[in-house]
Amino acid sequence: MPRFQGISAMNELSGKTAIITGGGYGIGKQIALAYAKAGASVMLAARSVDKMKETAVEVEKLGARAKWVACDVSKEADCAKMADETVKAFRQIDILVNNAGISGPTKRITEISLTEWQETIDIDLTGTWLATRAVLPTMDKQRAGNILNISSGAGRRGYPLRSPYAASKWAMIGLTQTVAAEWGARGIRCNCICPGAIEGDRIERVMRARAEALKQPYEVVRAGFLSQTALQRMATEDEVARVALFLVSPRAEGMTGQTLNVDCGSIMN
């Protein structure tokens, strides 16, 4: 069966401006490209400047406007600058995708330092809160906006050896529902995606770190990841991006406070 094509060819985000944190590579990059194909202007925000520049060029090749801003989402001033630069460049903020994050350590709780714990929480959770807080005043003035949080399958069930990561991703779902309830009357929606294991460099690093921590062959760890999925494969960045497009599009106007899994059937709830 041929793969579904053309979902972002309908210009359903025409006239919209989207901020994507961690937008230089991986899932963030694919979301940026999907939004650009759908007609949105894109502001990329991340610490990896070179990657953002490359993605911005690809966005512009699709005929969309693109800007980038160096931003560490764990820093309040950086998030404020991100919002200000977006309004300065595009005069509005219609969409925020909270995608920036780190994997954190792969260790038992007793082996994780407070510094390692705090760094993961600061970027994966507090960064989401700070970025959201930075864009809400503009969205409130517009009486419209979409916030999309990228959590994880680790936000749906416990994840041995990854306690700070799992804690932050669980909390993102609670934050999603709270923002939705708090700001819905102002025309602002907030939803969440929980990607499972996603094919690419990042999951390869995660699996190799897990194999080392468990003293197991890499092949055994990878087989374990695949065996958990109904489709017996990992999802792709593009599959996540398509759901990310749907959730901020007019087709999802009746959805807020919701969390969708994109994990090939690893978690079915």
Secondary-structure blueprint of this entry?
Layout: E1 17-21, H1 26-37, E2 41-46, H2 49-61, E3 66-70, H3 76-90, E4 95-98, H4 114-142, E5 145-150, H5 163-183, E6 188-195, H6 201-214, H7 218-227, H8 237-248, E7 259-262
Parallel strand pairs: 1-2, 1-4, 2-3, 4-5, 5-6, 6-7
Helix pairs in contact: 1-2, 1-8, 3-4, 4-5, 6-7
- Give the overall form: globular
Order of adjacent strands in the largest pleated sheet: 3-2-1-4-5-6-7
Instruction: Please count the helical segments.
Output: 8
Which CATH-level-2 architecture of the largest domain? 3-Layer(aba) Sandwich
CATH class category label of the largest domain: Alpha Beta
Low-confidence stretches: 1-9
Strand residue content:
5-15%
- Give the total of domains: 2
Series of secondary-structure elements, N-terminal to C-terminal: EHEHEHEHEHEHHHE
Major sheet details:
7 strands, parallel
Compute the separation of the termini in Å: 27 Å
SS-derived structural category: alpha/beta
Mean pLDDT: 92
Helix content estimate: 40-55%
Q: Report the strand count.
A: 7
The named CATH superfamily of the largest domain: NAD(P)-binding Rossmann-like Domain
C-alpha-based Rg, rounded: 18 Å
CATH topology name of the largest domain: Rossmann fold
